[in-house]
Write a structure and sequence with these properties.
alpha/beta; Rossmann fold; Beta-Lactamase; Alpha-Beta Plaits; 26 strands; elongated
Length: 737
């Protein structure tokens, strides 16, 4: 009997592992040499959700089994060419995945035993009932489906276990389990990579062999965690010991949770489970050593000055607060010092910021060597340091430390071959007399330090209540000085410069005065240094340029156009980028000839930013303004500036002029300056001439232009114009020969 064409499928069937999932119709191969029985079997199974193929002989069955996949073979044992046992042997030899139901009319037991030995699912003896066949086929396919599902689940479990083991051993964290005694029952490979202990060395060992001695108490609670869910320990930091001789402990962030027998499948004897509700702990330990080190670095940098490695102002306030609490508890005194390095800015501007930083580092090292172990030295910023000295016996302790500071700072500093000298101004406040709060103590120490600066620097001073009044006066002075600009309280005075041969006024130095509403007229020295410190020199200098140009219009109108005006220039004003444009604009606006203007500079201007200063001064020279160097001979590098800077005039400082007491005396410094000016072809002016002897000595040695009280004090514009009018009338007082 030929196979029914309708039951044949073209091409190779899908693998059996996919058949029951992707194809809902199982494939059945019906093998019988009786056409009537084969047709009857086909009709019985048709329409029941099966895909049927028939084979009337053994050779046809083998051909179908070789080409296609079948889930179930219904096989007659007695076939004309090849027997059923041989077909089953073929199925087994080829590893064909198909179940077999044997249908046979043989009565002997041997045929059935042979079929079952070869793996037949069932043996049906002909004639069989319809229900028996259908039930056997259904049961065979159901068992097959269950077997497949079990195989798939087992395969998934095996893959999951492999994946889990891979993930556990590849984890960046240490994963472990402990029994109820705290001994390791499992640990992954990461423990060896991080700690140097193999799995074999740790299994059975107590966790305490790994924990740093100082963390054992905390570890006792963490490694014996019995709680579950959200109550379990999270993110507990412990230090674990490493093996390998690197000497470093590693810090771990440990997350723990309790495990149960059913969930994890840890094999503990039944009676032990009944006896112990808690029997083990599962943990994940993450290495946070690098993070902790980074946090320590960040924390250190947040509370320390990077340049000097000293505590910064935040940490200093914290330590001062603790010291105050301690002093209050013990009823003792403590001292707070505020130190400002004198002449640091000069060094910084002269040698550059790199050398300035080196100076700060060396100074900090010297200060630190003078302190006790419990004292704190901190850098406030710039060249300012603060110190707290706890547990003083008396004020003399603080005095001795301050004296020691001054002593060590007076020793020269070597900055790559540059020998530098500095000093310090130190203010001291004592707890509780000078304040009980951190801010009070710091503020009063700061006030005392400024008192030292006002008295000439290079010293120390204890705070006194009277200093607070001075500080308040400075604040009031700043406010009043700002109002002075608004209310036109500033005025320019002029000190004439005299030709010693003719007695005529050839120039004048502009000097500022403040007509204070309550204190009267103040000289420049009483308020301009304060203006320099508080950022008021820029608006004051702007006002001065305009005021001078307006005044020159008045004296030019009465014939004073040949009088040269000398004006002192603030270093801050020169540093400002628009200084030159402001000067040029003012001269053009008022119609003043630049040749009438001489700008006086000091050595301080030159050393702040030499190259920039040279550029600015060259611009002025190109405009027609001349340059004078004031207080010549008092600095360190004046001679070099005469070559580097476009200087036209040298002014002999009054400190040298005051030394002249006899007309026929010998004063080598004066003679040297006159000789230098003459050799370089520079104009020469002597300042502070107050006696006839001084005037005659200077004139006799070649200095013919002078200014000082011998001739004129600084006078107002009205008096200066009156002097010019008198000079024009020929009544100017002549200098006696």
């Amino acid at each position: 009997m030929n196979a029914h064409p309708a039951t044949m499928l073209p091409g190779e069937p899908a693998p059996f592992s996919q058949t029951l999932e992707t194809d809902s119709q199982p494939r059945l191969l019906l093998v019988d040499d009786e056409p009537r029985l084969l047709s009857s079997l086909y009709e019985l199974l048709q329409g029941r959700g099966y895909r049927l193929t028939t084979a009337p002989s053994g050779s046809d069955a083998l051909a179908h089994l070789s080409r296609q996949h079948f889930d179930l073979v219904l096989l007659d044992l007695r076939l004309p060419d090849i027997g059923g046992h041989e077909i089953m042997d073929f199925i087994n030899e080829k590893g064909i995945d198909a179940d077999v139901i044997v249908m046979s009319g043989e009565i002997g037991i041997d045929a059935a035993i042979g079929a079952l030995k070869r793996g037949a699912y069932s043996y049906l003896r002909k004639p069989y009932s319809r229900e028996e066949l259908l039930s056997t086929v259904s049961n065979a396919l159901q068992r097959r489906r269950l077997t497949l599902d079990n195989a798939r689940i087992a395969n998934q479990l095996e893959n999951s276990e492999k994946m889990y083991r891979y993930l556990v051993d590849s984890s960046p964290d240490i994963i472990y389990t402990l029994n109820h005694e705290g001994r390791f029952t499992f640990v992954n490979d990461r423990a060896y990579q991080l700690l140097g202990y193999t799995r074999e060395e740790l299994i059975g060992q107590h966790y305490s062999i790994l924990v740093h001695e100082e963390d054992l108490e905390r570890a006792r609670y963490v490694f014996n965690e019995r709680r579950v869910d959200e109550r379990a320990s999270r993110n507990v930091e412990l230090r674990l010991k490493c093996r390998g001789g690197n000497g470093h402990d590693r810090t771990f962030n440990t997350t723990l949770m309790t495990i149960s027998l059913n969930a994890i499948g840890m094999h503990v004897p039944d009676q032990e489970v009944r006896k112990l509700e808690f029997f083990g702990t599962y943990g994940v330990a993450r290495d946070i050593t690098d993070r902790k080190r980074a946090e320590e670095v960040i924390s250190y940098q947040a509370y320390h000055d990077i340049l000097t490695d000293l505590p910064n102002r935040i940490l200093f306030k914290d330590r001062l607060g603790l010291a105050v609490i301690q002093a209050k508890r013990k009823q003792t005194e403590l001292a707070v010092m505020f130190i400002d390095l004198d002449r640091f800015k000069l060094v910084n501007d002269t040698l550059g910021h790199v050398k300035g930083d080196e100076l700060l580092q060396q100074a900090a090292g010297r200060l630190k060597e003078c302190l006790r172990k419990g004292d704190t030295l901190a850098r406030q910023g710039g060249d300012e340091f603060t110190i707290v000295l706890p547990e003083l016996r008396d004020r003399d302790d603080a005095r001795m430390v301050a004296d020691k500071f001054l002593e060590v700072l007076q020793e020269p500093f070597d900055l790559d071959g540059h020998e530098v000298h500095i000093s310090a101004s130190i203010g001291i406040a004592i707890y509780p007399k000078d304040g009980e709060s951190i801010d009070e103590l710091l503020r009063h120490a700061d006030i005392a330090m400024y008192q030292v600066k006002a008295l000439g620097k290079n010293g120390h001073s204890f705070y006194h209540d009277s200093m607070l009044e001075v500080s308040h006066q400075k604040i009031a002075l700043e406010q009043a000085l700002r109002r002075a600009l608004e209310h036109d309280e500033l005025e320019m005075f002029y000190q004439p410069q005299i030709d010693a041969m003719s007695g005529r006024i050839t120039g004048a130095e502009a000097l500022m005065r403040w007509n204070h509403p309550t204190r009267g007229r103040l000289s420049a020295g009483e308020f301009l240094p304060f203006a320099e410190e508080n950022g008021l020199m820029l608006p004051i200098s702007d006002w001065m340029i305009g005021a001078l140009c307006r005044d020159m219009l008045h004296w030019n109108a009465i014939g004073g156009s040949d009088i040269r005006l000398s004006l002192n220039l603030s270093p801050q004003y020169l540093d400002r980028g628009d200084f030159f444009e402001k000067m040029r604009g003012a001269l053009a606006r008022y119609g003043i000839s630049p040749q009438q203007i001489e700008v006086e500079i000091t050595e301080n201007i030159c050393i702040r930013n030499p190259q920039y200063a040279i550029e600015q001064l060259n611009k002025l020279c190109q405009l027609g303004v001349s340059i004078a160097i004031d207080d010549f001979g008092t600095g360190y590098s004046s001679l070099s500036y005469l070559h580097r800077f476009p200087i036209h005039t040298v002014k002999i400082d009054q400190s040298f002029v005051k030394e002249i007491h006899q007309e026929d005396g010998h004063y080598p410094v004066i003679l040297a300056i006159i000789s230098i000016a003459r050799g370089l072809g520079l104009n020469l002016i002597a300042e502070g001439v107050e006696t006839e002897e001084q005037a005659r000595y200077l004139r006799a040695n070649g200095c013919l232009t002078m200014q000082g009280y011998l001739f004129y004090r600084p006078i107002s514009l009205q008096d200066f114009m009156a002097a010019l009018r008198t000079q024009s009338g020929g009544a100017l007082r002549a200098v006696q020969a």
